[in-house]
Amino acid sequence: MEIKKFVCINCGAPKVNEYKSPYIVCDYCGSFYDVDYTLGFNFWNAKPEYTQIYIQKKAEMIGKSAMLKMTNNREEYLKVQRDYWDTYYRCFPPYLPPSIDSEKKYNLYLDVAAEITTDNALGNKWRDKDDEMARLQVGLRYYKSITGETKVENTTFFKMAEFYIDYLKVSFNDLYANPEYELMHEVLPQAIHLKTKLSMFVQVWLPYLLEEDQKRLLKMTGFTNEYVELEMPPKSEEKCEHCGAAILVPEGSYKAHCDKCFKVTRIKMEFDCMSCGAKNKVPENPAKPINCEFCGTENRLIKALFG
Fold first, then answer.
1. Is the four-CA dihedral 60, 83, 168, 161 of positive or negative sign?
2. Span 239-260, mean pLDDT?
3. Cα separation of 147 and 154, whole Å?
4. Full residue range of the structural domain in which residue 172 is found
5. What is the pLDDT of residues 81-108, one digit of tens each?
6. How many other β-carbons are positioned within 10 Å of the β-carbon of residue 102?
7. Does the reported pTM lie above 0.70?
8. What is the dihedral of CA 92, 249, 104, 178, to 10 degrees?
9. Count of domains in the chain?
């Protein structure tokens, strides 16, 4: 069968199970590694009453933030941002990164999210680049294709795309080097965060590009192979250890993601050493190589055999 090629950034395995969250979590090692923008947009419209609550909160936040920015009131600005992010994730829980699996970690994440948006707004560190990005977006030219579809003119688009990709990489390097944002390395590692941002950018713009320009964008961002032929592996049904819902587990899996409660269930607790056969505990991250406790041989639990 042909599936969208979401390949785990940690272990190389493909996404083989149907997913109901915009975040893509590996069926084999439990790592979060990509995002499906289209599905995320569907969640936005799933419950209009929550969407309305969020829209009102955002309008309120913008008004308050503008006034606080004028007076450079960082303390109150921070509170407004934290309240906004809390409302955002309460209204759209599928948007919360699946690595945030406890109330404690959730609150820490809100603190960091508020710090980042506050620093960006009051520090003005990226003002010039933000202004340039806005100018390039305004300068995009659109036209109707021979089939009547709206397309973007490639010269203006790729000028913006090249600037955006470079800006994204530079700003991410700066963000993840900041010790105050240390939590981000755990809940949303830099490589995964960057990949999801680029993935969303690609998914948004592909429909507006002609085929040759689509190939150029995919090559620029490392998403050349969007689809792959894959023979589905055997699966078994297990219960989520958190909510009890049924989850499909592909053969060879060590951790599986539940699309009902958005948490990860441990499938295997032990593995047999490939050298001496001794039983070892499965590590927290089964995608990484682990040495046998008895003979020291390096074991790779999940092999990147999926192209």
1. negative
2. 91
3. 17
4. 125-224
5. 999 999 999 888 878 888 888 899 999 9
6. 9
7. no
8. -80
9. 1
